[in-house]
Amino acid sequence: MSRKKQIAAAGAGVALVAAGAGAAEALRRHRDERVEVPGKTLTGSLEWTPTTETAVRTEDGVTLHVEIDEPSTPRAGAPTVVLLHGFTISRRAWVFQRRALTQAGYRVLTYDHRGHGRSGSGDAEHATIAQLGRDLRRVIDQIAPEGPLVLVGHSMGGMTMMAFGETSADLIGTRVVGAVFMATSAGGEGQLISLGYGAMVGRLIANYGPGALGRLSRQERFLRSLRRFGRDVEDYFVYHYSFSSRISRTLLRYTGDLAFETPFATLSGFISTFNDHDRRGSLKVWGAVPTLVITAADDRLTPADHGAVIARSIPGAESVIVRSSGHMVMLEHADFINEELLEFLDKVAE
User: Fold this and answer.
1) Which of 155-164, 205-214, 237-246, 248-257 has the highest mean pLDDT?
2) Phi-psi region of 117 (alpha: psi -120 to 50; beta: other; left: phi over 0)
3) Which of 10, 74, 153, 252 lies at a CB distance of 3.0 to 4.6 Å from 161, suitable for a disulfide?
4) In degrees rounded to 5, what are phi and psi of residue 172?
5) Cα–chain-centroid distance for residue 58?
6) Are strands 63-69 and 108-111 parallel, antiparallel or unpaired?
7) Residue 51 gets which letter from DSSP?
8) CA-CA distance, 342 to 106, in Å (whole number)?
């Protein structure tokens, strides 16, 4: 590889790490109506203690870390809400939603995808969205084998749901009674890994990112030790790819910590699967259940037009675009997202 390409590849790898961080007055919503969220409130602690911690072993032997939150006063007949996080973050990204949902009487199940958080990694061959869909089925079968479920997926978590729908359609409309796709994409747009800079950058990352990150992974401990010297630079990239409105430094650093806890090997392993992800043709199965599509107007990673494709492809889906919000919409506008989820769950119960 030429020196010029090596530099470009390394830059793509570092940029991808930063991108992975990513990162009201509600009107009555109609399809594709934009909702203005005029303020940011950070309510509640960023710490959360689950009721139960357990583990699930996948078909290829990876151990997934699973957490369950039990409400103190359960709602009769309420579905278990399964929260699926995005790329390079972890179950901790749902801290505000976990609190709100359990306080409202819902049982919440969340886990770390393979290679993320406290879960094991597996080999590169299984670092695919299709495998994540199979992992989700495994978690459901072992941890929530009975009762209704509502799936909520952010970013790669939403893609995981799409892959799950391809292989577990038998559960949609039977066990799975509702679905929320949040700041995600059905792919096929050619720019899923472009960092918002177009197809050429996407091709550069797809071609050279895995190798660059593979080389970086050999120096991971040293590189992570340098974070303390460059937090201002890190903060810039985390904000750029995760948020749009004014947020607290505490929340910004929390998001950065989530992203930079993810091993470089995980980043390298999953890049190709985003390039191959195209599930636009298999979204119709979700028309069997109430579906909500939430997109962020200023999302640089999965732009709002990707959400519009999902909403158009699912019969009867409701779509909400949140203004003044970036990719990490559930952290940036937590109160609003919580209200949306609770209202949606009420509709599912009807």
Assistant:
1) 155-164
2) left
3) 153
4) -80, 120
5) 20
6) antiparallel
7) S
8) 10
Q: What is the pTM of this model?
A: 0.83
- Cα 231 to its chain centre, rounded Å, is 24
Q: Which of 299, 325, 248 is nearest to 36 (CA)?
A: 325
Q: Which residues does residue 319 pair with via DSSP β-bridges, in sequence order?
A: 293
Distance, CA of 292 to CA of 51 (rounded, Å): 28
For strands 149-154 and 80-84, give the pairing. Answer: parallel
- Cα separations in angstroms, 14 against 209, 216, 234, 269: 9, 9, 10, 15
CA distance 104 to 349: 13
Reduce the DSSP state of residue 246 to 3 states and report it. Answer: coil
CA distance 195 to 72: 42
Q: How does pLDDT run across 236-279, given as a tens digit for each residue?
A: 888 988 999 999 999 999 999 998 888 878 887 888 888 889 99
Which residue in the block uniquely carries the two structure tokens 């340098």? 226
Which tokens hold the place of 282?
Answer: 């298999």
Q: What CA–CA distance (Å, rounded) separates 173 from 261? A: 36
3-state SS assignment for residue 254: helix
Distance (Å, whole) CA 323 – CA 19: 20
Enter the tokens of residue 168.
């577990």
Q: Left, alpha or beta for 309 (phi > 0: left; psi -120 to 50: alpha)?
A: alpha
pLDDT in tens, 296-327: 999 999 999 999 999 999 999 999 999 999 99
| Tokens coding 304 | 């709002």
Contact 264, 20 (CB under 8 A): no
At residue 187's C-alpha, the angle toward residues 291 and 36, to 5°, is 50
Return d(Cα 160, Cα 133) in angstroms, integer. Answer: 5
Residue 286: its pLDDT value, please? 99
